[in-house]
Structures are given as structure tokens and as C-alpha cells.
Write a structure and sequence with these properties.
Strand order of the largest sheet: 8-7-6-5-4-3-2-10-9
Low-confidence stretches: none
InterPro entries: Ala_racemase, Ala_racemase_N, PLP-binding_barrel
Strand content: 15-25%
Number of strands: 17
Distance between the termini: 17 Å
Keywords: Isomerase, Pyridoxal phosphate
Organism: Flavobacterium okayamense
Protein name: Alanine racemase
Shape: elongated
CATH architecture of the largest domain: Alpha-Beta Barrel
Domain Alanine racemase N-terminal: 11-225
Order of helices and strands: EHEHEHEHEHEHEHEEHEHEEEEEEHE
Oligomer: single chain
Length: 357
């Protein structure tokens, strides 16, 4: 059976690395937990690390977090739908918002639940996902800041999530200016300028982040130690907090090319044979007990560099072990490093066991 392993000590070291650089700069931060897909075992590891803020895009996950530790500050990190207003107020201390209509419903629901619900106004900064347009921000704020049972604790933005727009110093300076405009216009204090996500950490390490940006929301960097500007691992961090282990269930020498009339496979792809290919060529292939139902091969990287992934069907993956120096046998485990999306698929699968090292 294939399983996903979280390496506890590597996670702790990544957390300490991030917590240190944030504390040195007087920055508050929380962990984006949506990658964990509500896995209680792994959420408890974050609680044990001392994480006090958790951010998620699924209400069911926030509900689990509150059940584990009601003192954790929870945040719903996408604009709430009309149907979810009651649950957002119940399980999220904070929500990210872009619509006046929605915020008014949150105010009404918070009053019903006798709560103060906190909100962060998300601003469109060019990535073209959620966000209030900059030129409409003052009018927007004016319509909501006096609503009952609400507290506006910050402004924020999402970059690099949809269109790949990077959080440059200029972008974050622009976000800081929006804070100054609101504070000057309405004589209020905006506690958080939440412009920092994993992709902005390189700016932080270069001391190029505007001082007004005082709140970060971190997911990928914590779990993968990745510099999203360069694609490299941040010095001092681990890129293998998670690993996939899959078992070999068949080893056979087989032709490199399929034999017979070709059509679409289960994933809708059609194999094309290069006319210059030596059709008699073979390779030593192994089949693993995992498939497209649980993962996507392009997000996996075999620890053994001499192994290549051939392809996968719904429940099995084929690898080429011809060049491997290790003499594999049936029942051996093949380990893989994961990209973010690779881990997300696996964590969302009920068929993959989750364990802790």
C-alpha cells in the first residue's frame, strides 16, 4: 500500500527557520493549512509546534482545527459564499472579503451569533483573482467600516496564485500606500497589511519588503522550503518534509513501445511512436501500487535519480528501472519527493495512508 510520510523534525526545523526571520522583523504570521486537507494527524503537529493562526479554504477543515484547539485563530481565505455565511462566522475568526453584499451578511450573522467577526479586505493587485479594485477601495471601506459586529483587521492581496504575477517590492509598496490612504481618510488604524505569502519570502530575506507589510500567510515555504522566484530550496530549509512511498507489485522486461492499434488511454492521451525509434528496444519496468486516482506523475520526483516515470493509469504507475544500480525486487518501496500539487493530490486521497516519521 502506498503511503505519505511527514518528517516531523524537518517540519519543525522549517517552522523555526520561518518563525525566527519573522520575529526578527516584527512580523505576525500564520500557516495556510489547505494543503493538509483537514488531516487531523498533521494538523496536531502544527499545534504542537506552537502555530497560533491557521488559514484554510475549506470550512470543514476550520471546524476540525477548532475542535483540536479552540484557541487557534482560524481564517477563511476566500470570499465566503452566501450559503456558507453561518458556518464561516461559527468556525472562522477571520474571513477574507471583496463584496459589500457578503460583508453585510457576515455582520448580520455575527450579530445573531453574538460575535465580533474579523475581516480582511482583499485588494486586486494584478493577478486577477479575488480583490477590490484599488480605485474603488475608499468607497468600499466607507460602506462597511461602521457595520456592527465586524472588525476590519487588515487589508491584503493575493499574488502569483492565478496569473503568476510576482509580489515585487513595487507591488507591496503599492499595497502599503492603500493602508495609508484608508488611515488618513477615515482616521483609523489598520493593524495588518497582509501582503506576504510564500512567494514573498525572498524579498524578506533581502530586506526588500516595505515595513508596512507586517503580516504573512505561509504554506508552501513551510512544507517545501521553496524559493518561488528561483525554484530552488531556500538555504537553511528542507524540501522533503513530505515523501511518497509506493510499493513495487511487478517487475518485467518489456518493449519500450506499445504493440497494436492505438487509441486514447484512460487519461485521454494517445501514444505516438517515433518512426526513428528502434521498435525492438526494451527496458526493465516496474509497476507501483498507486495511480491517477491518488496523484499526478508530473508532480513526483524519484529519490533514485536513475529511475524515470513512464506513465500512470487510474490505479497503477509504471517506472523504468533499467539504469538503476539498485537491484529492486517485488515488495520494495520507491520513494518520491513531491511538489506542492503532488502533495495536495495525495493528502486529498482517502486511499493513501498518512504517517509521521
Amino acid at each position: 500500500m502506498a503511503f505519505l510520510k511527514l518528517y516531523k523534525n524537518k517540519l519543525r526545523e522549517n517552522y523555526i527557520f520561518l518563525d525566527t526571520i519573522f520575529k526578527e522583523r516584527n512580523i505576525e504570521w500564520g500557516v495556510v493549512t489547505k494543503l493538509l486537507c483537514g488531516n487531523i494527524l498533521y494538523i496536531k503537529e502544527l499545534v504542537d509546534l506552537g502555530v497560533t493562526e491557521m488559514y484554510d479554504s475549506r470550512i470543514s477543515n476550520l471546524k476540525k482545527i477548532k475542535k483540536i484547539d479552540s484557541n487557534i485563530t482560524t481564517a477563511y481565505i476566500k470570499p465566503p459564499s452566501k450559503e456558507n455565511i453561518e458556518k464561516v462566522v461559527k468556525y472562522a475568526d477571520v474571513s477574507f472579503n471583496t463584496e459589500i453584499f457578503t460583508i453585510k451578511m457576515l455582520s448580520e450573522e455575527a450579530k445573531k451569533q453574538n460575535k465580533i467577526h474579523k475581516i480582511i479586505i482583499m485588494i486586486e493587485m494584478g493577478d486577477l483573482r479575488e480583490g477590490v479594485l484599488g480605485e474603488e477601495l475608499l468607497s468600499f471601506y466607507e460602506q462597511i467600516f461602521s457595520l456592527s459586529n465586524l472588525e476590519i483587521i487588515g487589508i491584503g492581496t493575493n499574488l502569483n496564485c492565478l496569473s503568476g504575477v510576482m509580489p515585487t517590492q513595487d507591488k507591496l509598496i503599492q499595497l502599503s500606500l492603500y493602508e495609508q490612504l484608508i488611515e488618513a481618510k477615515f482616521n483609523v488604524k489598520i493593524p495588518w497589511v497582509s501582503g506576504g505569502t510564500s512567494v514573498a519570502i525572498p524579498l524578506l530575506l533581502k530586506n526588500a519588503r516595505p515595513m508596512a507589510v507586517n503580516h504573512f500567510r505561509i504554506g508552501e515555504a513551510l512544507f517545501f522550503g521553496k524559493d518561488l522566484f528561483t525554484g530552488e530550496t531556500i538555504e537553511g530549509m528542507h524540501n522533503d518534509v513530505f515523501k511518497l512511498y509506493a510499493q513495487i507489485i511487478e517487475i518485467t522486461e518489456k518493449p519500450d513501445n506499445p504493440i497494436g492499434e492505438l487509441g486514447e488511454n484512460v487519461a485521454g492521451n494517445t501514444y505516438e511512436i517515433n518512426e526513428k525509434t528502434d521498435l525492438s528496444q526494451t527496458s526493465l519496468r516496474a509497476i507501483l501500487d498507486i495511480g491517477l486516482l491518488d496523484m499526478q506523475p508530473q508532480y513526483l520526483e524519484p529519490d533514485n535519480k536513475n529511475i524515470t516515470i513512464v506513465d500512470a493509469s487510474s490505479d497503477m504507475m509504471v517506472i523504468d528501472i533499467t539504469n538503476s544500480e539498485k537491484n529492486y525486487k517485488i515488495g520494495d518501496l520507491i520513494s518520491f519527493k513531491l511538489q506542492y500539487m503532488g502533495a495536495l493530490y495525495l493528502l486529498n486521497s482517502d486511499y493513501i495512508e498518512k504517517v509521521i516519521e
